[in-house]
């Protein structure tokens, strides 16, 4: 049997210069990561596996994700883990406020996983976090990006009454776009 000749492989074409991303060379990324690790905070940057989180972290900013890193929904487009969440951490609002202060943020964005296991969907935890950030960082604008709170107006009122400067809603978390309604129970989306 004759020996097979290896197939010629063409070299992979180089990406154009405008498409290449240069990773940061400053210490900002590692400082942000160390602070978040020290304060045991979650960010949507990490939990949602954002491919660009190095850019934000190298500039000393991040989007805080409160109420844990386990979501009660399983949206097909989201990389955040779906699992039974841990109980809320009472000191988390203070840790977010401390991180905001130590990072010197003039504008902070706070989001959360969907917490269908909580009667208010985590609205009171949002309110406590907003208050803690305001108390320690009175000149920082606060933007919240909330889940749908299972369409409970009183939960939205709880967050609004805490006085965030900007209120946004994660439109992609509405029930009809999710694949399941609670941990361990798959349902058809509405």
The count of strands amounts to 8
Structural class: alpha/beta
CATH architecture: Alpha-Beta Barrel
At the fourth level of CATH, the homologous superfamily is Aldolase class I
Radius of gyration: 21 Å
Share of helix, binned: 25-40%
Uncertain stretches of 5 or more adjacent residues:
181-190
Mean pLDDT: 86
CATH topology: TIM Barrel
Give your account of this protein's structure.
There is one protein chain. 29% of the residues lie in helices and 15% in strands. The longest helix has 14 residues, at 123-136. The radius of gyration is 21 Å and the shape is globular. The chain contains six helices and eight strands; from the N terminus they run H-H-H-E-E-E-H-E-H-E-H-E-E-E. It has helices at residues 28-38, 44-47, 53-58, 92-103, 123-136, 153-161; strands at residues 63-66, 70-71, 81-82, 107-112, 141-146, 166-169, 180-182, 185-186. The protein has a single domain, classed as Alpha-Beta Barrel (TIM Barrel), CATH 3.20.20. The model is unreliable at 181-190 (pLDDT under 50). The strands form three sheets. A four-stranded parallel beta sheet has the order 1-4-5-6. The protein has a two-stranded parallel ribbon with strand order 2-3. Strands 7-8 form a two-stranded antiparallel ribbon. With 190 residues, it is α/β, with parallel strands linked by helices.
